[in-house]
## 1
Amino acid sequence: MAWHVELWTSPVGVIGLVAGEKGLRMMLIHADPAIVQESLFESFPDATPGGDDPQLIQAMSQLDAYFRGVRKHFDLLLDFSALSPFSEYVLRALQTVDYGRTLSYGELAVMAGHPGAARAVGRVMAANPFPIVIPCHRVIGRSGALTGYSGGQGLATKQKLLLLERAIGDAIQDLGTEEQGHLFAQD
């Protein structure tokens, strides 16, 4: 299968995208483009730059619209073929969570038809191959606290995404005004 790779700079860091004939296969967020590129080519050593790949162009266009506050849902072909059935089911359930809404790992487990599987859902979130597009940043702790995020700069990235969606509530109020103003500053 032919894989195409593209790097796109966003307000939360560099996003690496990989697509093949079945759709978008992987997204990776990090502040350092060299780390993104190295990780993507380690996973997809035969990939080629995909500047003219229509799936990558569409993904970058939709991500751009999301960060401008214009897009609230993604309409991309996603390749789930490398995932377990449980992971796919959890991620598909998460796709139904509305923009600006948060839910706990336990609530997502119930939505996915697996009550009591909050920890397993957490593992799926940590390995989500489509961050932002499948909004694992909207999944928070049972108490309402922000919990782990494996993309970009971890919890700071999660905070930025939730602030963008104006869903962060009490968690962001703990930050000072100056810190709130710098959440979208490019490093």
## 2
Amino acid sequence: MKMKRRLVRRAFTLVELLVVIAIIGILIGLLMPALSGVMATSRLNECQSNLRELARMTVAWSDDHNERLLPFGNTTNNWDWTLAREAAGYTKTPDTYVGDDPPGVFYCGESDVLVSLARLCGFGMNDYVKTNATPSYRRLSDIRAHSSVVIFGDSKLTALGPASFDPRHRGKVNFAYFDGHAETLKSNEVRTVVSTFPWRDPN
């Protein structure tokens, strides 16, 4: 008569379970920086796309207003509100946006700017091409090198300049130009001389 073998299930010991948990923790620790980097790159690209769209909207605004440059505005009616109302067919007032989620192309995922009556946008407009700058640019045609002059960029202020750009993308900053293209620069690559590109057209 053959004896039947008893199948005994072997359970994990506490030590083995702790080793498995430790290995999973190490793997997560290795993957997190990579995932964080992917997410940061995604936000950078989305920000760049938003800036391109804002640049195109601004040129379209000029086309619709006899080539006038978009006015910089004032503390309660900045350029961002002008574009937002134009895009919405002037059906919304600034207070419509307050308390809402960040409004589309007007915002950057890395920005900590809060939407308010004084500030809709997470970007700044070039402080050296606004219509009350010296010397002033009144029309789009006053800027000859559209591909070399910045119009918008990452900034904590509504104004953008060498002292106010915000390298919020891991030490990098996004800029959009009058021809509609955008680029990413390291903070030490941004020129600080305001009399020439990318802040002014020296021609």
